[in-house]
Design brief:
mainly alpha; binds iron/sulfur cluster; 4Fe-4S
Length: about 110
């Protein structure tokens, strides 16, 4: 069985915001894709989750946590895991500069 990546919870993480999440009233299955889900069904489920996040009063706190924790799965703060990955790559590119190979080094370091 492949090793599952784990979130890297920031040492200064707080959790009170979760008490106010709009997803507390929603089906959690909306936010986490089932194994092998892809295509139109994945797009539709992600959009449904994002519509819940769009009216959530703690969206920024949620997104900040998920990005800093490198949450590997699910829609958090209105961002899918693929969207968060792009943020990590962008952040790494900034840190690593723009010279040839910088993108690859950033991607390798993020994997
Ligand atoms: S932003 Fe979305 S995932 Fe985060 S607490 Fe709000 S509804 Fe839940």
């Amino acid at each position: 069985m492949p090793q599952q990546p784990l979130a890297q919870v920031p040492v200064d993480a707080t959790w009170e915001w979760q008490e106010h999440g709009a997803c507390r009233e929603a089906d959690t299955a909306l936010f986490f894709h089932p194994q092998n889900e892809r295509g139109l069904s994945r797009i539709r489920r992600d959009r449904a989750a994002k519509s819940v996040c769009a009216r959530c009063e703690v969206r920024l706190e949620c997104a900040d946590y998920a990005i800093r924790a490198r949450e590997p799965y699910g829609v958090w703060g209105g961002l899918t895991e693929e969207e968060r990955e792009r943020i990590y790559v962008k952040a790494a590119l900034t840190t690593y500069g723009r010279e040839k190979g910088a993108g690859l080094r950033a991607a390798v370091d993020l994997l």
